[in-house]
Specification:
Elements: E1 12-17, E2 20-25, E3 31-34, H1 38-63
Antiparallel strand pairs: 1-2, 2-3
């Protein structure tokens, strides 16, 4: 997970897959900008569902200028 301190709200993740770039809201798990192929979007949304609490904790850490904790990939 890469992070940028003081990233704008709402809490979100940036996703890159091949030439696609997307932003997904962590709380609503909705695509808010960009695009991903449908299969990859479902994959990322499943990962966000599983790790929502960890992602929100990491969001707060990043907002405080701290490094996020590692989150396991979806297997």
């Amino acid at each position: 997970m890469f992070f940028a301190p003081k990233e704008h709200n709402p809490p979100h993740v940036h996703v890159q897959y091949q030439s696609h770039k997307a932003i997904i809201n962590i709380v609503s798990n909705e695509l808010t900008d960009g695009s991903l192929p449908p299969r990859q979007l479902r994959f990322v949304q499943a990962w966000i569902d599983i790790h929502k609490e960890d992602l929100l904790t990491n969001w707060e850490l990043c907002q405080s200028g701290e490094e996020p904790v590692k989150i396991e990939p979806l297997k």
